[in-house]
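My current task is to audit a protein record that another person submitted. What it holds is a sequence and that sequence's fold in token form. Thanks in advance; the entry in question is below.
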Amino acid sequence: MATIDQSLRQRIQETSPLFSSLEAGELEALLAIGRRTKVPGNHSLFQRGSAADRFFVLLSGRARVVFTAHDGRELVVRLLEPGDVFGEIAVLDGGERTATVSTTEPCELLVVERSRLRSHLIAHPELNLKLLSLLAARLRQTTELLTDNVFLDVATRLAKVLRALVQSHGKPTRSGTRIDLKISQQELADMTGTSRVSVNKQLMSWQEQGLLSTERRVVTVHDMSAMEALAGVWR
């Protein structure tokens, strides 16, 4: 049985679309079938196309979900934070992994084996609808990401990424909203499907306009209304 302390359970429920919908007893029962493990940074948890026999809950650390093209280019689909669930799609349908996941720093994981998950879902059929809701949200996210990379320019894509990071990691400050997450220009480039040079050029332009500022890989957005307009979001 995996023992999860109260503060971590609360954080998992707050950050996970799947677990936030579970009652206390449902969450306890699902967490109990997993096992905890620690892995180092820059460690591949699984590769796209590999067989799937387990899914994961990130308990601490950071990881990233990546699509890799045949020419080696990468598109970061998600940055994973504590409480995030990943690897569940292939586990549910028995197919191959749809993306590659690797850690960016040392992580602790809750690992749930496919055989135990299937037995648990048979015994608790009400969880199937909640899993379907999670998968539908993931499909919407992926569809939007792919559509953006086909039809939107770099500035709009970058503005959408920054807006999403503000929504998930924003901390109010006197000068605006700080993205309370260290993220490199290369990571921003990977998330927008462009080059680091293009991201640097756009960030410099926005800094000159007073829309944002950057310091030690931390971005502070000073004009959120302007950023939302650039992202195509209108109040």
Q: What stands out?
A: The longest strand covers residues 54-60.
